[in-house]
Write a structure and sequence with these properties.
The structure is a single chain. About 5% of the residues are buried. The protein is about 45% helix and about 0% strand. The longest helix is centred in the middle third of the chain and has 23 residues, at about 20-40. By secondary structure, it is mainly α.
Length: about 80
């Protein structure tokens, strides 16, 4: 067992399997890194739309990317 500060942890409902909880966090981090790389690919063009092609758009990581992109104001 590992102990971490409470600020570094988040609760997972009992009905969510551990493997699903772990992959959900990993997918979210990966999606954030991918979106940040897309934004950094064209510095100075923040107001210009940057299209993103998501193959396997039904995958869990693509769904996270879509959600995060929409929250960032991407259309």
């Amino acid at each position: 067992m590992t102990t971490v500060p409470a600020r570094c942890a988040f609760p997972v409902p009992d009905d969510v399997p551990d493997d699903l909880a772990c992959v959900s966090l990993a997918n979210t981090v990966a999606a954030l890194l991918i979106l940040r790389a897309i934004e950094d690919a064209a510095p100075g063009r923040a107001a210009v739309a940057k299209p993103v092609l998501l193959t396997a758009a039904g995958s869990s990581i693509a769904k996270v990317m879509i959600t995060l992109a929409l929250r960032r104001g991407c259309d």
